[in-house]
Amino acid sequence: MKDVTAKVSSVELINHNVYEVKLEIDETPFIAGQYLMIVLPTGEQVPYSIGSAPHALPELTLYILVSDPSSLAQKVIEHINTNDSIMVKMPGGDSHLESGAFIEEAEHILLIAGGTGFSQMKSLYDSLIEQGFKGHVSLYWGLRTPSDIFMQEWVKQAQNEHTFSLDIVVNEADEQWQGRTGWLYEAVLEDHPDLSNSVAFISGSVGMVYGTLDQLELKGLATDRCFSDVFAYAPHPDKPKL
User: Fold this and answer.
1) How confident is the model over 73-105, as pLDDT tens digits?
2) pTM greater than 0.85
3) Which of 71, 113, 164, 218 would staple 118 via disulfide (CB 3.0–4.6 Å)?
């Protein structure tokens, strides 16, 4: 990863707790699915998936969840808001479109995101569209409640204009919610009971990633065809590293 100075273009609260941050950088290539580290004045380095695709450069978009005013994420937003430019390190991560040579030949690519894990999957989704990918792509985005949805215009456009599928699944529906409910893996397996010819990218918490992977493996998803940044820093809770 290299040090990059990023100009702050905008910071906008786009739902009750998610900020959309737009940065502008000099020519620093990355692959869809990779992340950057925001470097704070304290020396802390905070990772965020890049939510835009490489073809959008020199602009980068991040989606930052601030669930607690005393959180590190709040410190990140305050740092970005009070500076015209910030230091980042990029690119990082090996859960991206060049993770496996077989990706381009894959029959079906599953993009599975929990919460702001959507950022990484959006980058992958947009990049596959830009590349003219002809295979089947299914994006599943899981959230706790309907109020946690953000980027609603992008979601509507994606659902209306592209041949790729996009489903939002919430755990706690309200009376107005007309979409899918339950666990993400349940929606995936309802639509795709045989995953033996699929490739999957999963982004979310450690528990969400491994819990989803365990269920998908039962329906034929090969472990070497599943990619997640979680694998790099957190061993499977039920499969201790030997």
Assistant:
1) 999 999 999 999 999 999 999 898 887 655 656
2) yes
3) 113
